[in-house]
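#onboarding

Welcome to the new folks! Below is a worked example of what a typical request in this channel looks like: someone posts a single protein sequence, and someone else replies with the predicted structure as tokens. Don't worry about understanding the tokens yet, we'll cover that in week two.

Example request:
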Amino acid sequence: MLESMMKETSSEHEKSVLELHDLPGGAKAFFLVAKFCYGVKMELTAPNVVGLRCAAEHLQMTENYGEGNLIMQTEHFLNHVFSYWTDTLKALKTCEEVLPFAEELHITSRSIHSLVLKVADQSLVSFPVSTSQSVTQSPDDAEVWNGISLTPKTSGEDWWFEDVSSLSLPLYKRFMQGASARQMKPKRIAESLVYYAKKHIPLLGSQATSQNGNSSSLKSTISTPSEADQRNLIEEIVELLPNEKGIAPTKFLLGCLRAAMALYASSSCCANLEKRIGAQLDEADLEDLLIPNIGYSMETLHDIDCVHRMLDHFMIVEHDVIDSTSNDIEEEGRIIGGSQPQSPMAKVANLIDSYLAEVAPDVNVKLPKFQSLAAVIPDYARTLDDGVYRAIGIYLKVQKQIYIFLSMSCK
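Example response:
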């Protein structure tokens, strides 16, 4: 094809320039193609083989124009690359540089499929010192391999988390969808999603590293994505999370909810997170529930309505559990209040009472809102009423001070 294009151009003009603006891989790929055409040895590597494969296809460098042509050699080398974990990752990352050519040749999907298979079966994983092939147009050089396999250094089921976290979101999403289709354990999928989110969303990463004092080093190695990218990422992560209860840590989900609100993520994303958190609200910490109110009204310091919705979700789930084990709510209440003081319902009751005490000093908290949240907890769930009475006392004291202040102002 390249030869025919040059003939056409030269026949029209005595001195002509052939421009290949749409050549996959650009100037780098063309330079290697030129070396190949002139019989100069070049090295095929994991980072350059995808661009060369696409360029060869675009230039129709098939066996019809000579045995051992570039399509055959790059395709052969790609199959070799797919034998190795690290090199497949390198090749996959370069697919985005030559879209949609890599998609049309199914290189992207083949790379992802190769990675998924290796995650599903660690015995398939190999790590080469270097994977390369020296080639010229001579068929005698087509089988010159220079790869050495090492024993895979993999340990545990999370060995691949860091590697796949270096993928862009579109590629990572396709990888996770492929892993899910291969019946990977939902717990592993969720753990990988948590790892990816913490690495690429600063609001989550800072929470994870502040406890270890490593936040500065993390920021120095990872560029901060735009708010739009972070918003899209958190929406995708939440959508990819398996639906099972407890599949992700409650602290992480609450961190995601805070980040989603701060980034103005979609209402469906926030509602999804609230429902997930509500199902396992008994595992939440008080400090994580103190979500700043960033809504349009901002009438209170903390988003009490959000906590109310999560509590409603919890009560729905808990009532389903009670209904499946007992038809007598009062009997269930005696069990919770007696022999099982640390039941989920009792934990949530203590948590909400503590939450009420924290938001009570806010002068903008109206009585109906305060009462409504306190009333969601059934009487039998509170082994002691000290917590709710303490919250009520703080609230009344603040309201009394406001009343006194207003009375004095009117005089």
